[in-house]
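subagent[fold] <- orchestrator: predict structure for attached chain, return tokens only, no commentary.
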Amino acid sequence: MQQTTQTKTPLLKFMLILAAATSVILVFTLTPWNIVPTLVTEDVSVIAVTDYGCVGESVLGYSVVVTDCDTGVGDVISATFYVPAMDQNGYYDRIEGKLTMVNP
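subagent[fold] -> orchestrator:
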């Protein structure tokens, strides 16, 4: 009589590969393309002068602190700062347009 042995498939190994593949798919579909900060340089209007530098307001509505600043309130200076990419690429506008179609 001949003995046969059956080996089980490595379930743990399969589950780990499946979890890794799912993680990669989720990272590339859900994340940061609209959240990753992008570097923006724009002219800001100085609204306050503090010990740390000048505080300016950007066109996008962000408060920006410029450390090396020798200007006064009301002057326009150039500032470089990070903003979420969705503010730059119109992502909010597309979402808002879809919401107005759903909610009349």
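orchestrator: received. Logging for downstream: The two ends are 78 Å apart (CA to CA). DSSP finds three helices and four strands in the chain.
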